[in-house]
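Dear support,

I submitted the protein below through the web form. The confirmation email said the job was done, but the results page showed an empty box. After a refresh the structure appeared. I'm attaching both so you can tell me whether what I see now is the final result or a partial one.
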Amino acid sequence: MKYIVTTLLFFIVFTSNSQNEYGASAQFPYGKLNPEAPEQTGDYDEIIGTCDCKSIMRNPDGSWQETKDMKWTFKYIMNGTAVQDETILGNGRHAGSIRQFIADSSKWYVHFYSNTAPTPTLPAWAGERKGDSIILYKEQKAPNGLDGYYRIAFRNISTEGFTWLGEWVNLSETFRYPTWKIACTRQEPDE
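What the results page shows now:
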């Protein structure tokens, strides 16, 4: 009986640890990329961690608001097979996303949530990485009813940081209207 209990406890501990082997830990506070995940899961690898950012949003009248400080943290979740991010603006606004790469469609699917616009169904963007950019789209009509997309672009991705742009574009992407700009610099590990 003692052997069965010991074996069962070992199995439970081993199974429990292996199911989150790539999750956040003291040694890897942002988790690790699971080598069995689709290769593209590493598209965000250079920006995993916390960045200090400058965020500026457009007002409804077309003018730009004052620049706000923001923290943006990216980490591996779901045993290193997906990415989660969280933003914290100085004005109390919090938001985040769950990012999964689906190999069958060869696309990232990003589900967004926020404390200022809670919704029963999370909006989703879809896209891919090309070079040092990750471009994501969500269908969205312009205020005048014209069909288009809200396009999100991570650009200049490196271990130093990245830039981010949210903008409305028409279907052919020949017209664009930026509404949100963010520039991020990676924090030093001890900050």
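Response: this is the final, complete result; the empty box was a page-load delay. The helical segments are 2-18.
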